[in-house]
Amino acid sequence: FADLVLETWDLQCERNGREHRTAEMGCQQLVVRRGQPFTITLHFSGRAYEEGVDKLAFNVETGPCPIETSGTRSHFTVTDFPEESGWSAVVQQQDGDSLSISLCSPPNARVGRYSLTLETSTDYQGCSYHIGHFVLLFNAWHPEDTVYLREEDERCEYVLSQQGLIYQGSRSYITSIPWNFGQFEDDVLSICLELLDTNPKFLRDQNRDCSRRNDPVYIGRVVSAMVNCNDEDRGVLAGRWDNHYEDGMSPMAWIGSVDILKRWKNFGCQPVKYGQCWVFAAVACTVMRCLGIPSRVVTNYNSAHDTNGNLIIDRYLSETGEEERRSNDMIWNFHCWVESWMARPDLAPGYDGWQALDPTPQEKSEGVFCCGPAPVRAIKEGDLQLKYDIPFVFAEVNADVVYWVVKPDGTQKKSTHPSVVGKNISTKSVGRDSREDITHTYKYPEGSEKEREVFMKAELEKRSLGTEDEGLHLKIKVSEGANNGCDFDVFAVINNNTDTERVCRLMLCARTASYNGTVGPQCGLKDLLNVTLEPRAEKRVPLRILYESYGENLTQDNLIKVVALLTEYQTGDVIVAMRDVYVQNPEIKIRILGEPMQNRKLVAEVSLLNPLAAPLSQCMFVVEGTGLTDGQQIKELEEPVEPQAEAKARLDFVPRQAGLHKLMVDFESDKLMGVKGYRNVIIAPQP
């Protein structure tokens, strides 16, 4: 027999991409999911393959030093019956000189970039051919993969959807911003693989790191650490919270992960400036979805940052409502992290499913700034000793807040304050642009018997709250529509639920604030020394907040913190109430002109009304959307926009993909920044 000579081959990137749901990663490279067969075609010259005479074998290798014992190298022959475990190759069909072969990885294979080599041998004569590279991803569609997710609509949302919503604002006024995850856009996959190869664990022991890349728990921990740069580890983002972002991008200006990941890569893996929690979480979500692990961004309102781990957050206020910083414990208005779906074979049964991963650098875990994966189920049950970092996340959703009012002579009076931490935990609904509340997955209903049990198990005291009925009660309400550029009212609402008249002092104070709890200058104050409360009656006291007082100091988080202190003269008791008022930006209007069709020019008109009393200069619109625009489009306006006038721009682009896509818009200017809007656009397929 003459030697079997391989002439050409075809990795069938397009067909395999369709079957493995990776087609959007481009047809230039083969990207497949583990545990699922993929087909390649071999063309021989001179003569055809003959079974029984010719032996065919494949080598697959990943990582810098592949060895079989660590699962980074595998050698397997073409057979009729694939083995139960390990890689396999089976002849599918033979057509003259061409041969179709189906290859399949085990569902627990290492993910990453592989090289593929074919070895042919006839009568001891052998040849070796390097056929090319392919990338292997996790497979949420395979029942034996540790990231298997049963429902197809959830797999579409959490693995395949490239766009989403992230919840912000405040607990009493939840807002959302659109986000372009873009995990299948050009270069994103190679950047995600480079991120794995830049992580310190890889640099320390490349072979060990690559051998652990079959485990989503390990990958999640690496990604959580690599998205921030706090460990001098060439991480993706630098965090900053002080409202000085001139030497980079303001965290509020981003509308997608792709821009950030490309900047990181193009600047030699230097950290991109700047991120805050939702940016860290969104970039981590992009990387995890790209690698095939189902993931979502979640937002926790009134999120506690408990540095000493005692689950009590002490806050100190002066009699005028000014906060004194005495500890690093903070309450963030909201905090975002990622949840990723995976089995936890490293733990006792019962902890599979959603795991919390927090890439925002807050505390070190095993010496590195990362957090998780923490099983959400373990957080709910108070199982604080399990891996990883459960006490930290447990505190974020469960800590208690105690307010101490410090008198001029230095004495402190403890104030009652109902449970405020860990509210309205939110994520985007599956398949719809609405909010899903997932608080019940993190904690039992407040005041329930089950909640008390969890706290006892966690060896923590849960303060019991006094009955709501008796005594004095204080709340803060907001008049309809606190709009940027306008004056608005907040009200202290006091209820006297007793049978006697009470005389009190009421202090109302408003300050501009950032979402991480820090406050700026005062923008409203009222001090009433003599408030008489009739028995069984309600009193409303207004405080007018003027644009001329808050406009200069409003941060890009658009928050104003209102504090009310009610001191009862007779007993000396103090009641504290707080509210974070979200000041609404104007709406961006998006009009689509013409009939949206694949590969045909489309025009979008974007506009926004200037609500302020001063002109806006340096105005620009930034527009992006996976499948619609090719990267970002930036339109700068030449003229300033006068008060009550419209900022307007037209953009044209050629949508490359049919189906439903989000066109996302960000507006920037000197006085109004980080304004977001989006519009769903349905692109008809090319006829």
Automatic annotation (TrEMBL):
Ca(2+) binds at N398, D400, E446, E451. Keywords: Acyltransferase, Calcium, Cell membrane, Chromosome, Cytoplasm, Extracellular matrix, GTP-binding, Hydrolase, Membrane, Metal-binding, Mitochondrion, Nucleotide-binding, Nucleus, Protease, Secreted, Transferase. It comes from Eurystomus gularis. It catalyses: L-glutaminyl-[protein] + H2O = L-glutamyl-[protein] + NH4(+); L-glutaminyl-[protein] + histamine = 5-histaminyl-L-glutamyl-[protein] + NH4(+); L-glutaminyl-[protein] + serotonin = 5-serotonyl-L-glutamyl-[protein] + NH4(+); L-glutaminyl-[protein] + (R)-noradrenaline = 5-(R)-noradrenalinyl-L-glutamyl-[protein] + NH4(+). Residues 269-361 form the Transglutaminase-like domain. InterPro entries: Ig-like_fold, Ig_E-set, Papain-like_cys_pep_sf, Transglutaminase, Transglutaminase-like, Transglutaminase-like_sf, Transglutaminase_animal, Transglutaminase_AS. Binds 1 Ca(2+) ion per subunit. Its main location: membrane. GO terms for cellular component: chromosome; cytosol; mitochondrion; nucleus; plasma membrane. This is Protein-glutamine gamma-glutamyltransferase 2. Its EC number is 2.3.2.13, 3.5.1.44. It is found in: Cell membrane; Chromosome; Cytoplasm, Cytosol; Mitochondrion. GO terms for biological process: proteolysis. Belongs to the transglutaminase superfamily. Transglutaminase family. Its cofactor is Ca(2+). The gene is Tgl2. The active site is at C277, H335, D358.
